[in-house]
């Protein structure tokens, strides 16, 4: 247990997902490590490498000194370049090396989290270089490992844990992003409302309201005559919000009522993570 109870749900969610990843990859044969995932340019091995690499940096391990190949099409900016180093340096590791390093990293990181004394508002340096609070970092890690667990499950054909603790952290992250998606990115008109009705293992209904100044808020109250209503299942919502699928590819799983042009703009800007 951490010393601060408000942080424990994020630690528990992270633990649940990272242990699920470890169980998923433990029995893989070498060929399965090379299966493509929905993360551009990343295989199963690469996703696991990413998880290992970030946790190692949070443990204070030095970043690898490594020069990336120039032909990685999915590396497009400084952030993706920084993320890719931890991935590319492990591309020739065997399955046994990967599972061994993952297990050791999880043990070390779990011990660090159990002994963590810093509070929710304490600031620390994120692996990408910016300052972040302990609460935001642990929320991000819980969300990230759950999202990547789902990437691995889809690649390996082993669905599950769509309602795990990490899924509920992800839901909150997605909902918090909705005002920016609707008002800022999709430019929804003033005095309009957009409803999201999500079904499945994690279900919710939220309304984004844009006021006369163009500012947006989100809550659970229904709206009379919304500009757009989206009805979709939780897994499709996750794939769209994580940028793992194009809206056109799942059009049959997203029911849209109302302003089609605004709906298309919202779906075009729906991804809140890479």
UniProtKB/TrEMBL annotation:
GO molecular function: isomerase activity; metal ion binding
Gene3D superfamilies: dinb family like domain
Database matches in InterPro entries: DinB/YfiT-like, Maleyloyr_isom, MDMPI_C-term_domain, MDMPI_metal-binding, SCP2_sterol-bd_dom_sf
Residue ranges of coiled coil: none
The keyword Isomerase belongs to this UniProt entry's keyword annotation: yes
Top-rank taxon: Bacteria
Pfam family of the protein (one): MDMPI_C
Ranges for domain MDMPI C-terminal: 168-264
Domain Mycothiol-dependent maleylpyruvate isomerase metal-binding: 15-153
Keywords, ordered alphabetically: Isomerase
Name of the protein in its database record: Maleylpyruvate isomerase family mycothiol-dependent enzyme
Organism (species): Streptomyces chumphonensis
